Amino acid sequence: AQSVAQPEDQVNVAEGNPLTVKCTYSVSGNPYLFWYVQYPNRGLQFLLKYITGDNLVKGSYGFEAEFNKSQTSFHLKKPSALVSDSALYFCAVRERYSTLTFGKGTMLLVSP
Amino acid sequence: EPEVTQTPSHQVTQMGQEVILRCVPISNHLYFYWYRQILGQKVEFLVSFYNNEISEKSEIFDDQFSVERPDGSNFTLKIRSTKLEDSAMYFCASSDRGGDYGYTFGSGTRLTVV
Predict the structure, then answer these.
(1) I want to staple A103 with a disulfide (CB 3.0 to 4.6 A). Which of A6, A45, B13, B43 is the partner?
(2) Contact in structure between B76 and B20 (CB atoms under 8 Å)
(3) Chain A interface includes B102 (CB < 8 A)
(4) Is A107 in contact with A39 (CB distance < 8 Å)?
C-alpha cells in the first residue's frame, strides 16, 4: 500500500530565509508525487508534481521540490519565504492507476 | 483557468438527516473523486468514479454513502443518515487521464452535523 509521511507538524521560518518542508513516501512501483497547499477556509491548490524526468521540479509561487529516489523523499523548498506563504502544505503520492494518498500536512508559519 | 465548483460551501444538518453535497467537475475530465478532511486531520480518500461507476472506494465509504452523476455535469455525494463523526470538510476533485497530471480540487463543503 502506498503512504506518505510528513514528519513535521509545523515549520517556522523567518521571512526572506529559505524553507524546506519534508516529505517521504512509500510505493511499490514508480511514484507520482505532488504538493498541494491549503490556505485557511480554502480548498487544496496544486503546487507542483513529479511524474518523470528531471528530479528538480519547479511549481507555482516560486516553490520547487526535489525527487530523491534513493531516499524516497520529495521535499518542498523555496529560496526565500514570504509571510503570504504561511499555509498548510500537503504532500501526496500515487502510483499509476491508483488514487492519490495524502500526508497529514505540515503547517508553515513565516514570521515577518 | 477551469475550476471544480462545490455547493454549498457550508451545510449544517441534524444527526440522522440525509445530505447531498454537489460538485461540478471540470468539463473535459473523466475521473471524479471525493475526499474528506476532519478538522485538524489528514485528507482522506473516500471514492473514485469513472465511466458512471465507482472504480475504487475506501473503508470509510460504507453503505451510508453513495455517489451519482445524475447528468452530464454534476457529481454528487449523498450521506444517507448523518452521524456526528461525519462532520468534516468534503472535497470533490476531478482529473483527466487517470490523474497523471494531478487532481483539481474544489474549495470544499464544510459539513457540520449537530
Answers:
(1) A6
(2) yes
(3) yes
(4) no
d(CA B94, CA B6): 12
Which pLDDT tens digit goes with each residue over A76-99? 999 999 999 999 999 999 987 788
- Rounded CA-CA distance B108/B110 in Å is 6
3-state SS of chain A: helix, strand, coil percent to 5?
5, 50, 45
Query: pLDDT per residue over B22-61, tens digit each?
Result: 999 998 898 999 999 998 788 999 999 998 999 999 999 9
CB contact under 8 A, B100 and A96: yes
**Does residue B54 sit at the A interface (CB-CB below 8 Å)?**
no
Which set of grid coordinates corresponds to residue A94?
500515487
- A58-82 residue pLDDT tens: 998 999 999 999 999 999 999 999 9
Q: Name the grid cell of B89.
A: 470538510
* Nearest-CB residue to A90 (from B43, B45, B106): B43
Q: Output phi, psi for B85, to 5 deg.
A: -75, 0
Residue A105 touches chain B, beta carbons under 8 Å? yes
